Amino acid sequence: MCGIIGFSGVRKVPASLIMEGLKRLEYRGYDSAGIAWQVHSKIRIRKCAGKVDKLWEALPANLELRSGIAHTRWATHGAPTDTNAHPHTDSPQRIAVVHNGVIDNYRALKRMLESNGHRFTTETDTEVLAHLIAEQLNGSIEEAICRALREVEGTYGIAVIHAGEPDKIVAARRGSPLIVGIGEEGSFIASDAVAMVGRAERIVHLEDGDIAVISGKDHEIRRASGGIATISDWSRLDIPPTVADKAGYPHYMLKEIMEQPEALEDCFRGRVQREFGTARLGGLNMMPRDFLEIDRVRLLGCGTSYMASCVGARMISDLARIETTAEYAPEHRHSNPIVRKSALFFAVSQSGETTDTIMALREVMRKGGKVLGIVNRVASTIARETGAGIYVHAGFEYAVASTKTMLNTMMGLFLFGLLVGRMRDLSLARGRELIDAVSELPDKIRQILAMRDEFRSVAEHFSGSENFYFLGRGYSYPVAMEGALKLKEIAYVHAEGYSAAEMKHGPIALIDETFASVFVIPRDSVYERTLTNLQEIRARKGPVLTITTGETDDLESLSDRILVLPQTDEILLPFLTTVAVQLFAYEFAAQRGCPIDQPKNLAKSVTVE
Ligand code: M6R
Fold it and tell me: What stretch of H or E contains 385?
């Protein structure tokens, strides 16, 4: 989604300092980019539709600057054109603004400003902010911003410069993340800490309503709660400078698929307690008695976090015998949710910044419900607002298509199920058996990753197919949905995930010799039933890829291609089958030459509703 970086230095620096930060935000997805800086009390702007490299080429040669604000835009209001790209200014170009979020009442504000003589040149909601701030300018820029924002309904993370106040950048946040950083060369504002990697040493996350003013190494963060940020609000920026390395892989997605054995181990190591057949999750901040009072668990998430939640809901139900369901976060929010004292909610999110999930958790909290986070990014909004939960420790995920965080989120939920299960009916022997099986997962995932050539050959076999069903039952049903999501996201082919059982109730109408099906059919308690569904597809001449475990005798005549994975406990099968659907989707998209790390229309972190 949109990205912001602003820098104010103690001396002039090459423009590359800001542009490198902007490039590190590319992974979030965007369609245009721009930058504003000051020269002799005038604001200069370059912006264009397309990639950051195109913007870089459009900058004056050897440009040096003391400060500037830059932006990658993911279009919401107005097409991705040069004109609509940020920064936006008032008419005399005294104010420049970059903005993440959506101004809900921009039409009303625009009408009011037009009646006051302001002229607009873009289709964006952001341009209204520049004019609104200019209208209020009568003293310092931060005072004008505070007055202007009182008129604004909606969400924003903004960085603003004023021609009359050189090197000062003012930032404000409501609902859209912003971080202030400080390093040797000066101060930063960014929507994602990754933009400041290698430059800022200490950071502070702005809360809604905060205003930050930076100038060189001077900085002041006025808290919405009153007062100024103190030393205890700052933390070290702990993202390694190597974060943007592909480590020799052609794509971040493949690198992250390959990292899964180690990433998964990072999630369960130190948390499983074999002696007691259970897990320890200190971040939950709950007393043993609190667990006994839970009679319902709701997992709220979007996209892959939702798919991981569907798997996790089954795991928790199975292990702890607590009724657990997964729901799309925005659907839950708008369903006038029933919130009971005995229910426990989890906001599930890789980034911890997904607006749909944040709004859903706020709705539950507003009703007095208890919400914990299951999050990858440390200190993200969801982690801070829930104040307790499970970090999934997958490491930085750069690819837009989530992979390793799906596995680690499932592991976080599994560990929760194991912990609560062992406080209820799950036996010590079963707990230990599961922990032993978990500790074998990384090696089994390595075995699947070593089958890459086979996946490539299978992808080649199906590379002409434009339509896919991904089908599975039981634990394989959400895995099938995730396989379809991955294929859509990175390969741009039509793919739908269904329960294999549901096929005969309608979707099977589409099956013919051109419509392919990927069956996720490991040897589990629903194997025989799924086999019947496979036969139904085959009887209608549908091409089939089978992803299974164990013997393949009864699958040979029913499949065009078969991928055989290692076996594990039924409840842990999604940790293996998910890797298989990821790798198939990756190899399929690679065959078709798709821009795997920058899929069109998609953003890594979706910070609008
Ligand atoms: O950061 P989150 O886990 O909250 O993100 C949720 C979805 O936007 C995300 O999973 C999205 O579906 C990915 N592109 C999936 O690959």
Answer: helix 381-386
Active site (annotated) includes residue 47: no
Catalytic annotation present for 246: no
What burial class does residue 91 get, using C-beta atoms within 10 Å of its C-beta: 0-12 exposed, 13-18 middle, 19+ buried? middle
The CATH number of 252-448 is which of 3.10.290.10, 1.10.287.110, 3.30.2130.10, 3.40.50.10490?
3.40.50.10490
Distance of CA 436 from the midpoint of ligand 1 (Å): 30
CATH of domain 451-609: 3.40.50.10490
Name, in order, each residue with C-beta under 8 angstroms of 175's C-beta and a sequence gap of 6 or more.
Answer: 101, 154, 155, 156, 157, 208, 355, 358, 607
Ligand 1 atom nearest to CA at 409? 3
Instruction: Give the 3-state secondary structure of residue 447.
Output: helix
438 lines ligand 1 (CB under 6 A): no
* pLDDT tens digits, 314-326: 999 999 999 999 9
∠ Cα 319 445 411 (to 5°) = 30
Domain 3-244 superfamily per CATH: Aminohydrolase, N-terminal nucleophile (Ntn) domain (3.60.20.10)
Among 253, 350, 492, residue to substitute to test ligand 1 (most atoms within 8 Å of Cβ): 350
Q: Compute, in angstroms, the gap from residue 603 CA to the centroid of ligand 1.
A: 9
Helix, coil or strand: residue 480: helix
Q: Is the pTM of this model over 0.85?
A: yes
pLDDT tens digits along 259-272: 999 999 999 999 99
